[in-house]
């Protein structure tokens, strides 16, 4: 029986069709997806913090409105993704507990501080830009609810990327001090952005299986290269220097060569020792505790509605 189900699963995946919640799936596939989608959801929610830091200090009403909308989008992304994990049988309360107890990860990029307002622009340009490169292929991932959530998320991410770039363009046309702020932010965020694609292929233990299941469509190094090639001309247009002396066009490869990433730093941050790691988790824990009354009230309300329906 199981062999037959497995053959059907392989056929669906091989034919580029979607696996849906009620379909049979291998245990490992379900576990991998729950882990990946939960990490992704956590990243969206934790990712609200570094930028929210600037909402109250945005330099104009227009910038405040844009930033508010963007941070709110990220909350929505978290919501779609947590809902996608629920279709796999995961429990949201349990995932949140795992996050605040440090048993599940989120993207290490959000453990870096946002020191000036140009960081908001650079996060939009580089961090949301890298997220797009990572996530566009996920619109074709083999699990239906995840793929569908990603289509909507990617549309919003492209707005995030453009608002960041437009903010930086505006600052680059401003004063010398503003240009210095942009360059400083680029210097600090460039390398962590490259780390967003994960460890090099040779050290990425989950890649091969995820590619076979068509959860993942490209390797970490392929996506990283794509991001570099896409970003270099944008940096030129902006008039900033990417902080890598080894970055240059390689005509033979048809790609840009770039310097070695500091993997020691990467593993440090992934291991929970980033500059803001503790602060991010503490904040998330406090926000979750403060929201307990909202969850209780919503549950009580939902309960009463079902009671009423039962009487009617
Ligand atoms: Fe997002
Ligand atoms: Fe975003």
TrEMBL record:
Name the gene.
Answer: paaA
Spell out the protein name for this chain. 1,2-phenylacetyl-CoA epoxidase subunit A
Query: Does Oxidoreductase count among this protein's keywords?
Result: yes
For whether the record's keyword set contains Oxidoreductase, the answer is yes
Matching entries from Pfam families are given as:
PaaA_PaaC
How far does the signal peptide extend, from start to end residue? Answer: none
Matching SUPFAM superfamilies, A to Z?
Ferritin-like
Please give the Gene Ontology molecular function terms for this protein: phenylacetyl-CoA 1,2-epoxidase activity
Q: Which organism is it from?
A: Actinophytocola gossypii
- Highest taxon of the source? Bacteria
- Its Enzyme Commission number? 1.14.13.149
Q: Which InterPro entries match?
A: Aromatic_CoA_ox/epox, Ferritin-like, Ferritin-like_SF, PaaA, PaaA_PaaC
The entry's keywords: Oxidoreductase
């Amino acid at each position: 029986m199981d062999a037959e189900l497995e053959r059907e699963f392989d056929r669906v995946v091989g034919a580029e069709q979607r696996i849906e919640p009620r379909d049979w799936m291998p245990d490992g596939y379900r576990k991998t997806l729950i882990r990946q989608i939960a990490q992704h959801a956590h990243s969206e929610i934790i990712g609200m913090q570094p930028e929210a830091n600037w909402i109250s200090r945005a330099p104009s009403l227009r910038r405040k409105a844009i930033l508010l909308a963007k941070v709110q989008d990220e909350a929505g992304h978290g919501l779609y993704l947590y809902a996608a994990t629920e279709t796999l049988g995961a429990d949201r309360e349990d995932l949140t507990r795992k996050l605040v107890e440090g048993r599940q990860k989120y993207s290490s990029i959000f453990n870096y501080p946002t020191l000036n307002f140009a960081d908001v622009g650079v996060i939009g340009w580089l961090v949301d830009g890298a997220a797009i490169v990572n996530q566009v292929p996920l619109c074709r991932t083999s699990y239906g609810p995840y793929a569908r959530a990603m289509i909507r998320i990617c549309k919003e991410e492209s707005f995030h990327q453009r608002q960041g770039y437009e903010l930086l363009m505006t600052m680059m046309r401003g004063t010398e001090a503003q240009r210095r702020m942009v360059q400083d932010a680029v210097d600090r965020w460039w390398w962590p952005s490259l780390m967003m694609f994960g460890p090099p292929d040779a050290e990425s233990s989950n890649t091969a299986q995820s590619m076979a299941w068509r959860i993942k469509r490209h390797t970490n190094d392929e996506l990283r290269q794509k991001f570099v090639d896409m970003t270099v001309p944008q940096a030129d247009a902006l008039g900033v220097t990417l902080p890598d002396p080894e970055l240059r066009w390689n005509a033979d490869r048809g790609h840009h060569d770039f310097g070695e990433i500091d993997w020691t730093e990467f593993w440090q941050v992934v291991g929970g020792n980033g500059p803001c790691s503790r602060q991010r988790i503490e904040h998330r824990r406090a926000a979750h505790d403060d929201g307990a009354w909202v969850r209780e009230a919503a549950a009580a309300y939902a309960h009463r509605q079902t009671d009423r329906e039962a009487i009617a």
